Amino acid sequence: MGTKRIPQATTKRLPLYYRFLRNYADAGVQRISSSELSEAMKIDAATIRRDFSHFGALGRKGYGYDVDSLLQFFRETLDQDEETNVALIGVGSLGNAFLKYNFQKIHNTKIVVAFDPKAPYDGEERNHIPIYPPDRLEEKILELGIEMVILTVPKRVAQELTDRLAQTGVKGILNFTPERLAVPDTIRIQSIDLSGELQTLIYLIKNDVKDSQMN
């Protein structure tokens, strides 16, 4: 993406664009307009054109967008041709779900190692993925060259583990704990508070009901 700063909202939509474009390419569609993408994705056409404009001239006026060219652009932008190895820390209910989901290898991302306090020192396999105790965290992350981690651990140990990860060269953490983690500038962090998202959804639904009762 070069040195140009891309808005965070645009960045979050990039994987969504890639997924829809891949579906169109698989269906044999050769070109598509922003209005057609808008209708399929339920995103305003002006937003799509603005998002794409951050990356230069991706389409032609009166023609729209070449699906294969656009797909290749987003594949390169999102590094889809390069497999990303991920470590999972915490193999509870949510962690187990990730281990099972891993087989799909969506977006060239693959969990190659996991860590859990109940695992034996020499490791054990689950869904063909080795699981080790946290004592071997630094050793295995360095050995496997892991740069991205999914964190699904209890809140009380989240920051301690994050501090340890910061010493290993990890570049990104997907945080599923409610803890607001402090990280150095060398690490990108995305936090997903499932309970918070659920509360927001409940609030929006209740306000939709209130609005409909007032109208």
TrEMBL record:
<dbReference type="GO" id="GO:0003677">
    <property type="term" value="F:DNA binding"/>
</dbReference>
<dbReference type="GO" id="GO:0045892">
    <property type="term" value="P:negative regulation of DNA-templated transcription"/>
</dbReference>
<feature type="DNA-binding region" description="H-T-H motif">
    <location>
        <begin position="16"/>
        <end position="55"/>
    </location>
</feature>
<keyword id="KW-0678">Repressor</keyword>
<dbReference type="GO" id="GO:0051775">
    <property type="term" value="P:response to redox state"/>
</dbReference>
<comment type="subunit">
    <text>Homodimer.</text>
</comment>
<keyword id="KW-0804">Transcription</keyword>
<dbReference type="InterPro" id="IPR036390">
    <property type="entry name" value="WH_DNA-bd_sf"/>
</dbReference>
<dbReference type="GO" id="GO:0005737">
    <property type="term" value="C:cytoplasm"/>
</dbReference>
<dbReference type="InterPro" id="IPR009718">
    <property type="entry name" value="Rex_DNA-bd_C_dom"/>
</dbReference>
<comment type="function">
    <text>Modulates transcription in response to changes in cellular NADH/NAD(+) redox state.</text>
</comment>
<keyword id="KW-0520">NAD</keyword>
<dbReference type="InterPro" id="IPR036291">
    <property type="entry name" value="NAD(P)-bd_dom_sf"/>
</dbReference>
<keyword id="KW-0805">Transcription regulation</keyword>
<dbReference type="InterPro" id="IPR036388">
    <property type="entry name" value="WH-like_DNA-bd_sf"/>
</dbReference>
<dbReference type="InterPro" id="IPR022876">
    <property type="entry name" value="Tscrpt_rep_Rex"/>
</dbReference>
<keyword id="KW-0963">Cytoplasm</keyword>
<feature type="domain" description="CoA-binding">
    <location>
        <begin position="79"/>
        <end position="180"/>
    </location>
</feature>
<dbReference type="InterPro" id="IPR058203">
    <property type="entry name" value="Rex_bacilli-type"/>
</dbReference>
<keyword id="KW-0238">DNA-binding</keyword>
<dbReference type="GO" id="GO:0003700">
    <property type="term" value="F:DNA-binding transcription factor activity"/>
</dbReference>
<protein>
    <recommendedName>
        <fullName>Redox-sensing transcriptional repressor Rex</fullName>
    </recommendedName>
</protein>
<feature type="binding site">
    <location>
        <begin position="90"/>
        <end position="95"/>
    </location>
    <ligand>
        <name>NAD(+)</name>
    </ligand>
</feature>
<comment type="similarity">
    <text>Belongs to the transcriptional regulatory Rex family.</text>
</comment>
<dbReference type="InterPro" id="IPR003781">
    <property type="entry name" value="CoA-bd"/>
</dbReference>
<dbReference type="Pfam" id="PF02629">
    <property type="entry name" value="CoA_binding"/>
</dbReference>
<dbReference type="Pfam" id="PF06971">
    <property type="entry name" value="Put_DNA-bind_N"/>
</dbReference>
